User: What shape does this take?
Amino acid sequence: MYRGQMLYNAYEMQRSMLAGASAWANFSAELLSNPANPFAYFGGGPVLGSALEVFAHASAPRGKPEFGLDRTTIVPSSSADRGRPGSRPAPAL
Assistant: This one.
């Protein structure tokens, strides 16, 4: 198994676990912000409802975006560009 495949499987497992938690958080946030609920007006109800809404939004499943790339061009680099990844040449003084 390749390392990329293993990381993808871990990502998918995390997403599948968070999907249920996101649904419950969304349900609880709606319950705590419902005007018919007496706990929505005092105590920690509004704060807890807002926190659950933030968690539900952050952990909601999203689809994979379409990038529209059908091919990739790789330009060979010169020997001066080789070195540490992300390193830049020293500025001339």
About this structure: Residues 3-32 form the longest helix (30 residues). The chain has two helices and no strands. Residues 3-64 form one domain. Residues 32 and 47 are 9 Å apart (CA to CA).
